[in-house]
TrEMBL record:
Pfam families: SBP56. It comes from Taeniopygia guttata. Belongs to the selenium-binding protein family. It is found in: Nucleus; Cytoplasm, Cytosol; Membrane. It is a peripheral membrane protein. Pathway: Organosulfur degradation. This is Methanethiol oxidase. The lineage of its organism: Eukaryota, Metazoa, Chordata, Craniata, Vertebrata. GO terms for cellular component: cytosol; membrane; nucleus. It is an enzyme of class 1 (oxidoreductase). Keywords: Acetylation, Cytoplasm, Membrane, Nucleus, Oxidoreductase, Protein transport, Selenium, Transport.
Length: 410
């Protein structure tokens, strides 16, 4: 990339993802890269020469600031009409401000804000929608200018970490419902089931270690939430706080809507839950791929409701894996789960300083899709520590042929 310190955190496909009323061919040729720190937007052509991607459009931060009064860009998805929607975390000064930017689906020009100015949430990060139900759901993020310094326990109970889940009317672009998921819960990841008819999804709250089920209630056009998973915190010594909560960095749902996968960036495990109608998710698989509680590390676990001993460090192809599981991606047949271990560069430096020196990795987990279960593939490793210009921090993963984190359109 031509610039440094962009923080290429999220990535999404352009309108060729199969948007049903744009007339675009269902080919993925443009990758949209919003930048979490600089607020720049890149559009990369990955279709002309898949082994030689090139930047075909770049929107500078000043244009985002002046036209939208927003910054700190996060998750992006194509809309049903072919335009591109990008969620933001703050305003140009780094104060908390949610909402969305809209790009033209053909020219990739910045159109402006998607929502009405008076309805911008306090913070933002992720979103997902179900077009058949005319609903878009967005999560909360962090106040960028404070969270960008690193995690500070003194910021708890001060509104730095979001707590709201927002429900929007997709066609009217209006906010219709808000759910308070608890102080400092930090709901980050939002995922609907893949079936276009499904009126159900899941929300991962990073700091509270909880997952909520989102569903349409009996009342027409109203939605409801219920807590269905709570990962216990651990009492520890040698860490930034005496209690280490689970940090839910990402969620992914299998294409057949049978399994939910959860990455726990601080504890270091990836979990597989079986989903069943009208039942709470059932844990059927778990594997540790790093984290802060490894045996021999600086943190001692004093009390643990789940484990009898601290996990062993992971070594794959003679490389010690540092960091914790962050971004997930699942193959379309549901049998291979991929994971990277960088969450956010400032927080990487704080919690996993060895990751900055050694670089991050991408791992592959083999998935038992019959009975459930996860196993690290010891023959697969993408080592980003060996890049020619120095170690890199990898986060988002996308598949050119379609992936399990793209919005499903009828």
């Amino acid at each position: 990339m031509p610039n440094l310190k962009d923080e290429l955190h999220c990535a999404g496909w352009g309108p060729a993802c199969g948007c049903f009323d744009s007339g675009a061919a269902a080919r993925r040729t443009r990758l949209v890269l919003p930048c979490l720190i600089s607020s720049r937007i890149y559009v990369v052509d990955v279709g002309s020469q898949c082994r030689a991607p090139r930047i075909c459009k770049m929107i500078e931060p000043v244009d985002v600031f002046w036209k939208c009064n927003k910054g700190y860009l996060a998750v992006t998805h194509p809309l049903p009409n072919g335009d591109i929607l990008i969620a933001n975390m703050g305003d140009p000064a780094g104060n908390g401000k949610g909402g969305f930017l809209q790009l033209d689906g053909e020219s990739y020009d910045l159109k402006g804000n998607w929502e009405n100015e008076c309805e911008a949430p306090p913070t933002g990060y992720d979103f997902w929608y179900q077009a058949q139900h005319n609903v878009l759901v967005s999560s909360a993020g962090m106040v960028p200018r404070l969270a960008g310094r690193g995690f500070n326990p003194e910021d708890l109970k001060k509104g730095v970490f979001g707590r709201r889940l927002n429900v929007w009317n997709l066609s009217c672009r209006s906010l219709t419902q808000c759910f308070d998921l608890g102080e400092d819960s930090l709901p980050l990841s939002v995922r609907f089931l893949h079936s276009p008819e499904a009126a159900e999804g899941y929300v991962g709250c990073a700091l509270s270690g909880t997952i909520f089920r989102l569903y349409r209630s009996c009342e027409r056009d109203n939605w409801a939430v219920e807590e269905v998973i709570r990962i216990p915190a651990k009492d520890v010594r040698g860490w930034i706080m005496p209690t280490m909560p689970a940090f839910i960095a990402d969620l992914v749902i299998s294409p057949d809507d049978r399994f939910l996968y959860v990455s726990n960036w601080w504890h270091g495990d990836i979990r597989q839950y079986e989903l069943a109608r009208n039942c709470k998710p059932r844990l059927v698989g778990q594997v540790f791929v790093g984290g802060s509680i490894l045996r021999g590390g600086p943190v001692t676990v004093c009390r643990d409701e789940e484990l009898k001993c601290q996990p062993e460090p992971l070594v794959v192809k003679c490389k010690r894996v540092y960091g914790g599981p962050a971004a997930l991606q699942l193959s379309l047949d549901g049998k291979r789960l991929y994971v990277t271990n960088s969450f956010y560069s400032t927080w990487d430096q704080q919690f996993y300083p060895s990751l900055i020196k050694e670089g991050s990795v991408m791992l592959q987990l083999d998935v038992d899709t019959d009975k459930g279960g996860l196993t690290v593939n010891k023959n697969f490793l993408v080592d980003f520590g060996k890049e020619p210009n120095g170690p890199c921090l990898a986060h988002e993963i996308r598949f050119p042929g379609g992936d399990s984190k793209s919005v499903t359109l009828p």
